[in-house]
Every structure is written in C-alpha cells, then in structure tokens.
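Regression check, arginine case 582:
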Amino acid sequence: MIDTLRQIFATALKQTFGNDVTFVEPLVVPATNPRFGDYQCNVALPLAKQLKDNPRAIAQRIVDNINLDEFCQPLEIAGPGFINITIKPEYIAQQITTAHQDERLGVTAITPEGKTVIDFSSPNIAKEMHVGHLRSTIIGDSIARILEFRGHNVLRLNHVGDWGTQFGMLIAFLRQEKPEVLTTANAVAIGDLVTLYKQAKSKFDQDPEFKEEARQEVVKLQSKDSESIKAWQLLCEQSRKEFQIIYDLLDIELTERGESFYNPFLPAIINLLEEENLLVEDQGAKCVFLDNFVNKQGDPLPLIVQKSDGGYNYATTDLACLKYRIEEDKATKIIYVTDAGQSNHFTQVFQVAQKANIVPENVELVHVPFGLVLAEDGKKIKTRSGETIRLKDLLDEAINRAKKDLENRLESEGRNEDESFINHVSQVVGLSAVKYADLSQNRTTDYKFSFDKMLALQGNTAPYLLYAYVRVQGISRKGNIDLDNLEINKSIIIKEESELVLAKHLLQLDYVIKEVEKDLLPNRLCLYLFELSQKFNQFYDQCPILQAEEDVKLSRLILADLTAKVIKLGLSLLGISVLERM
Ligand code: ARG
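Current build output:
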C-alpha cells in the first residue's frame, strides 16, 4: 500500500509543482498515531520553505491535485500542513482477501540482481564458541532468511578463524602433553580442546623456552610441513564437530570458508597495495595509513597488513577475502555480522579496499554490529564457579527450563502428554526463547540474558508468540471450513473497529519486511508480530467468531487464519518454527 501511495504522490507532486523543486523522501510514511489516519504525507512543510509559501496552502494544492478516492477517505490537512491519509475499510477488506489467497501473504518479491554474501557466526577453531558467536549466528541467520524470502540471492559464509599463530602454540603444547590428539581423530573429547588451548596459552605466557618451540611450530605450519598440517587438520575437524552440534540444534545452514582458504592470496594483496602506493613501512611492519584514524595522542593510526616478521594478520585476510568475494563469488553486497568491537576493523578494511580499487561502485559493504550479551547482573556471563559458559550447556539449560515450565503447566491443567510431545515442545520453546530474546532487542545495544524473562508466557517473548499461534490456529480450525480452498471468492466484511485495526496491521507485513531488509534490524519484525498478537486478542475479545452469522463468521475466520499464517511466516523468518499444540 505504502509503495502505491508513494508512487501516486510522486506523480501528483511533479504535475503540480514541476521538476524544479525537490521533495523530501519518503513522500509517505506510516502515521505516528492512529488519530492521524493510517499514513501521512509531510512534504508540504519543506516544500513551502522552498517555494516561500504557506505550508497549509501548499498542502491544499497537493490535496486538490491528487485523486485517491479508490482507496482512501477524503484527505485531511492537519496542523501546520500535514496531509493525513486514511484507507477505506472496503479497500482493506479487498486487500486482506488478496493477501489471504497469496502464498507470500502479500509480501512482494524482488528479481535478484547480483549476490549478497552474509558473513556470520564465524567462530574460531580450538577456541570456544562464545555468546558473541551465538549472537552473530542468530542475527545473521535471521537476516539471511529475510533477504532470501525477499528473493535475494544469498551466500551464507562462515569465516571461521582456522589459521594463525595460536595453532603453533597449541600444536607444540599437544606434542608434549597429549601427542595422540595430533595423530588420531577424536582422541580428545569435544570441548576439551578449549581447556587444552587455555593451558597452552598459559604455558606460552610463562615459559620462554616453550614460546620459542611454539614459534618454530608456526614456521613449520607455514611451510606446509606434512606432519604439522595433519595435526592442524585434526584440530579443525574436532572443533568443526563441536560447532556443528550447535548449528544442528539451532537449524543453521552455513558454508564454511575459513581464514586459511585465503592464505594463497595474501602475498598478492601486499603487492597490490604496493602498486597502488598505499604501503608505508613503520618499524619493519607494512601498513596503510587512513583518513580520520588517529590514536589517543592524535597521531595517525595505520592498518598493519604485514608484521615485521613477515606474517600476515586478520586484516590482510579480510582484504583478500573481500577481493575474492567480489571477483570470484560476484558479490554485490557483503554483510558482516560481528560484535560492535570490530567496527573499527571493518571501517579500516573497507577504506583500504576502496583505496586499493578492490571495490567497484556497484558493490556495497555493510558491517552489522551488535552489542554484548551480559548476565542479569550486567557482568559477563559465567557459570556458578566462574568458568565461561559453553554454548551447548546454555542451550540445554534453556530446553530443560522450558521442560520444567511445561510439566508444571500440564499438571495444573490436568493434561497428560507423552514423552515425545514433552521433549519436542520443550526443545522448540527453549531454543526459540533464546533466539527470540536476542532478535527482539535492537541489536546495537547490549542485552541481559535472562532465562526467566525469555521463557515467560507473557510479554514480547517466543513462548507468548508460539502460544498465540496455537490459539489463533485453534480458532480458525474450529471453524471447520477449508479456508485455503474457498470456493467463492469471498471478500471479507469489516465492520468493527478492532477488525479494522487487526486487518490494517496484517497488511503492514510487506512494509515491515522491507524495512528489515533495509535496516537489517530483525527486532522490528519481532515487535510487529508481538503487536499483531495483541491486536488479535483485542479483536477476539470484542468480536465473536464462531457464534457470528455465516458471512461474518467466514470473514472473521479468514482474519484469524491470516493472523496465524502471518505469525508462522514471521517466526520462520526469525528461524523459529511453530508448534501446533503446546
Ligand atoms: N572469527 C572472528 C571472531 O571470532 C569473526 C570473523 C568475522 N568475519 C570476518 N570476515 N572478519 O571474532
């Protein structure tokens, strides 16, 4: 709807004022308050300034020159010159019928041009996959689902940290303490690798002799010594298995292409920067100086691309990776989902890539930063004994708590359900709760991880929405009419205010999804779904469905059915699957 209005306004404005004036986009926005109708056009005010005229008079000229009778009530001019737009209920009714019959529920699809790479999750081998990676995984997956649904060609890439000096250290340590890990698959329990890594690190920090051995090991690895490579591969294999457990639980599709993949392309990056005259030697290291990057003292802060010992780093890899994604993957948009702590890194890498002419004009680079996940006391998440929490344990706890809640509820409702039902529901509820708690926050802020809040049946939570779906679905099912195959092309009837409010909200889905596509903020979709369930509740309170007369009953059943479908689709775009019973 909003797109249609924008188009009509654009044409009318051009006809009325000619091409010499500029109009502030967007021409039409959703109304900030239902008192002002459904949409607003606020262009009269800036236009009046340009034309040195009275804004109300300008608004009047717009209103006189636009014909929206087909969809809208007569336009109203309010305050200093806002134009309020209210859609006619008959038009809403017609749109609802169309959306209900559309398998995409009224959400338009684009014809993809180019390719969007989404770099997300990206944990590091042999180090733990921490809550930050969980956030990247959940947010990245949801963004991918939303873009895919809109029709984009998406390549989901897992840029795992599978290379670097830490491997020298770990291999040197294991060679002394647990050599079998380096020669046999699965010689160490999944998860123990992280502990061994920590021990290696502490030895590295304390023991100069060991430090030297670790350095030698890095050299061997870099020169592709076969024994070292085999050890490295075994370590990667082991970590990968651990990551996969999490991805399977969370239903995440990802293609792994780790840092090591770009090793062969690193020297060429240095050459390229050299050719572009961007390299400067600073205390033996090769760097690129950037605009607007200074340290605390105000001295220019360079991006190091080759260390004084000749080694490359995270930034060099990201430059090679960027180039590869553009040239080989043909990416036209690259989205990086990482914690906000890496914002500087990406600004620098993007700037260097631009300066080195790696990024053609049609390619867009986007960093999607997110805040920290904190414990309820605002500190870092830890176990009771102060250890860092393993993701698997965290997810298991969510499932276990969901199970307890469910068992209590079943008991109080006097229901008897079998083991497989209980396990399935707890798993879906527990995991959805974790995902939704993350996605419903504006990602740029830190959020506090609270099992109690995320598992609550009330409020903007996954259990609330899952429950809303079960209820709405139940109601439309009770109608006993096959709504998917209505014989007559029945248009719905909208009489009550709460029906109208619900219907209008249902029709906002297309707009909301496009907004998320633009801002990459899935919390907007969460809020939309939460408000949808609330509006459905008000409608259900005020409008009898099954007891209503035949045509009203059918009409209300369609509203209920569409609500259920929208919740299901919306949740699926957040990576959450619905339950038919819970
Ligand atoms: N492995 C990194 C980390 O754990 C994230 C990688 C993000 N992607 C990238 N292309 N740098 O922080």
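Comparison notes: The chain is about 50% helix and 10% strand. The CA atoms of residues 350 and 398 lie 38 Å apart. No diff flagged against the previous build.
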